[in-house]
Amino acid sequence: MSQDIQSILKRLKVDADNKGAAVGNKWLNTSGEKLASYSPVDGKVIANVTLADGKAYDEVIAEAQEAFKEWRQLPAPQRGEIVRQLGNELREYKQELGSLVSYEMGKSLQEGLGEVQEMIDICDFAVGLSRQLYGLTMHSERPSHRMYEQWHPLGIVGIISAFNFPVAVWSWNAALAWVCGDVCVWKPSEKAPISAIACQKIAERVFEKNGIHPGVCGLVIGDAEIGKKLAADTRVPLISATGSTRMGKKVGEVVGARLGKHILELGGNNAMIISEHADLNIVVPGAVFGAVGTAGQRCTSTRRLIIHESQYEEVKERLVKAYGQLRIGDPLDENNHVGPLIDTDAVKMYQAAIEKVKAEGGKTVIDGEVLTGAGYESGCYVKPAIFEAKADYEIVCNETFAPILYLIKYSTIEEAIEIQNAVPQGLSSAIMTTNIRESELFLSHAGSDCGIANVNIGTSGAEIGGAFGGEKETGGGRESGSDAWKAYMRRQTNTINYSTELPLAQGIKFEL
User: Fold this and answer.
1) Annotated catalytic residue 388
2) DSSP for residue 371
3) pLDDT level of residue 334 (50, 70, 90 thresholds)
4) Which CATH number fits domain 270-463: 3.90.1860.10, 3.60.15.10, 3.40.309.10, 3.40.50.2000?
5) CA distance 301 to 111
6) Widest CA span of the chain, in angstroms?
7) CA–CA separation, 104 vs 288, rounded Å?
8) What is the pTM of this model?
9) Which one of the listed residues 118, 204, 265, 438 is annotated catalytic?
């Protein structure tokens, strides 16, 4: 792959050594540390980045402020046209960008290409949205008065993204923010910086071709201090942060202290309830992909299977058979199902979680293992594991970003829902059942407390047309579709008096 990746980088116009800050097509001098991006696929260096320093960060923000003054004046449908062009540019480079995402992050090639397709889809969604930023009109209690609401852009949107979706999450935020009239400054994960540079290179060409101020699209690749600087910056009215709950709490605290706005998309500890009325022919593929897809490194990955006691043994037996067929290896080989974890630190967390569940009394169904030998030289490949557990185990109530699945037994549907909801996180959930009463209960006020609740599909994955996000320690934010665009704008209520008098509200008299 090392030879292939060089041709991919050349096509994407990414260098062997890169600067870590940019405004559009202008790459800034930086004096931070040099960061090498290693592929978890084979342990080789993809390219280097010199991290952004404080001076470069301030220049990116200053350019963004200037760009906002121009960009907000462009009619929304014209902003949408430029985003449409970005979608077309992504179509042109889908194969190369998807391959780079897979190689740098470790997800399968199909998933890497799927992530770029999500970018294309959100651009298409945003184009339509650019003609649908609707307000409201309402009746005034005062004669000859008109009231209405309208929406205005906020300014700079700071985007902090995670390694597991190194490009799609940026696009979910940026495409919507741009059509809303905002400008963007992106701080990508330090674990996947080359994919971010490739995206910047693609986007910069579109904005340059249209004569747009380069500050509309900013990039700062830096350490945690740059992230803190972005979160604390009063010049940035909205921060959209994706990552762990621990990180999100820190971001939320800093942004909240300055009364800024935030969209937080944090941890998930997602469960699938398997009812006594479930069709097991769709249960197993949904559960297996949810648990091992992206090597369990999706925020929507299935962590817990809550199985009715009458189905428990058969489900367990089918899972063991299915896991026995999994092929683990190079994710760019489409014959493989499971790629590596992002790095050796993630492997250590995987090992610690396995030790913890065993110490708490969990029974091994399929034990975990760090794979070695030919094809596994990076040290990041692990065997997906399954354990029988109890719902109240500490490790079960916490998210582990790895392919570890816990099996939990239940007796009644009410008990199953209670087990599902009894964790701090609230992102995605699913029930497998052919019983309409169970499915409706699951979707009711007394059902799932998650931001996403599915029936007869798994927990993993989401379509861009719906708002994506969760409750509780998942952060409460929403990205992507539906009316998530409102988070990127400020609401303004307007009252117009077209009479020759000045009547006051509530019939108040104020005579001079």
Assistant:
1) no
2) -
3) very high
4) 3.40.309.10
5) 14
6) 91
7) 24
8) 0.96
9) 265
